[in-house]
């Protein structure tokens, strides 16, 4: 049985205090620098962990439905059985979940199918909170929501679900694997110190491309390498995905262009070829001139997936080296 939320919050506060008092803080010299708190193992903020855990019952529920593919994968990695998972055509569920009942899409689950499974808890992505809560409003089914947008979100979800389902040991093993992949990406930082590679991340199809910021999953991986994602630094991105402003992109002159499409690598290649043909200005980019336009595998970079992170880290390291 895990600690109640109130106890966990106290533990988080003690960890925060320990991190602060462990720092040698000199007398006030006019500096406004504030020392950062020491995170828990796995790089997870204790306050964020305590907040996430307040959604879960003290006793782990025995019957769980996941309305999120990434969260279903995390539960699978932790050895937590799931009674239902979302239907999907663009994301890959673990093979061992192939025969688990489907509950409809992540953003619009079928409430009747969920009720038939009689779950003690439905776990969904934070991005689907409004629709899932509305669907479950009249059923009395408890729900919990976790972010899955970035790698940092996934690490917090692993830690949270590990604590909520008494799977701390399994969670630590998963976080160790993620840490090894992170280290491979961070190893690129010294090579780009002082002059980071300017990267442009695109997602979409012909005539409807968007740029991806560090708030996207692919962007969060690129950020680990020390590359300069121009969506954040020069294009004024206001969210994970923002419409392309070609004039600003031209001015930014990216060194590398990474392209993603839910239709797969062939669809992404066709889309970017059509875009370059329709707008010749793209051809002046350093990335295009130097042959550094790369199509990413959607299964590795389009959504958070722990199983393929090592392969994604290898691929991205090759593109940004």
Verbal overview:
α5 links the parallel β2 and β3. About 12% of the residues have low confidence. The chain has 321 residues and is an alpha/beta fold. It is globular. The chain contains 15 helices and nine strands. It folds into two domains: 170 residues, Nitrogenase molybdenum iron protein domain (Rossmann fold, 3-Layer(aba) Sandwich), CATH 3.40.50.1980; 129 residues, Nitrogenase molybdenum iron protein domain (Rossmann fold). This is Fe/B12 periplasmic-binding domain-containing protein. InterPro entries: ABC_Transporter_SBP, ABC_transptr_periplasmic_BD, Vit_B12_bind_prot. Belongs to the bacterial solute-binding protein 8 family.
Brief rundown of the structure:
The chain has 321 residues and is α/β, with parallel strands linked by helices. The protein is 44% helix and 11% strand. One of its GO terms (biological process) is cellular response to iron ion.
List the helices and strands and how they pair.
Blueprint lengths: L4 H18 L23 H8 L10 E3 L2 H10 L32 H7 L3 E5 L3 H8 L6 E4 L4 H14 L3 H19 L2 H4 L5 E6 L6 E3 L4 H8 L3 E2 H4 L7 E3 L2 H7 L3 E5 L4 H14 L7 H4 L3 E3 L2 H4 L7 H12 L1
Parallel strand pairs: 1-2, 2-3, 4-6, 4-8, 8-9
Antiparallel strand pairs: 4-5, 5-7
């Amino acid at each position: 049985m895990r600690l109640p939320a109130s106890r966990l919050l106290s533990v988080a506060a003690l960890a925060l205090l320990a991190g602060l008092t462990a720092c040698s803080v000199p007398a006030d010299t006019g500096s406004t620098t504030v020392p950062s708190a020491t995170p828990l193992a796995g790089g997870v903020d204790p306050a964020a962990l305590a907040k996430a855990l307040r959604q879960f019952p003290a006793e782990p529920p025995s019957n769980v439905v996941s309305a999120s593919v990434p969260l279903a994968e995390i539960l699978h990695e932790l050895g937590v059985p799931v009674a239902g998972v979302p239907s999907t055509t663009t994301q890959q569920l673990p093979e061992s979940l192939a025969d688990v009942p489907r509950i409809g899409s992540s953003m619009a689950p079928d409430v009747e199918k969920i009720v038939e499974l009689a779950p003690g808890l439905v776990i969904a992505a934070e991005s689907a909170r409004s629709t899932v809560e509305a669907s479950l409003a009249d059923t009395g089914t408890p729900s919990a929501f976790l972010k899955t947008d970035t790698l940092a979100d996934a690490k917090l979800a692993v830690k949270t679900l590990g604590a909520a389902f008494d799977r701390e040991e399994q969670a630590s093993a998963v976080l160790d694997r993620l840490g090894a992949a992170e280290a491979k990406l961070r190893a690129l930082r010294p090579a780009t110190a002082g002059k980071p590679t300017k990267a442009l991340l695109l997602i979409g199809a012909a005539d409807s491309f968007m740029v991806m910021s560090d708030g996207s999953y692919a962007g969060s991986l690129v950020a680990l390498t020390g590359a300069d994602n121009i969506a954040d630094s020069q294009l004024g991105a206001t969210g994970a995905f923002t419409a392309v402003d070609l004039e600003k992109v031209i001015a930014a002159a990216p060194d590398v262009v990474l392209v993603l499409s839910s239709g797969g690598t062939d669809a992404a290649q066709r889309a970017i070829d059509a875009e370059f043909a329709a707008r010749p200005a793209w051809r002046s980019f350093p990335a295009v001139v130097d042959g550094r336009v790369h199509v990413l595998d959607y299964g590795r970079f389009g959504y958070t997936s722990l199983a393929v992170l090592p392969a994604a880290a290898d691929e991205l390291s090759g593109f940004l080296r």
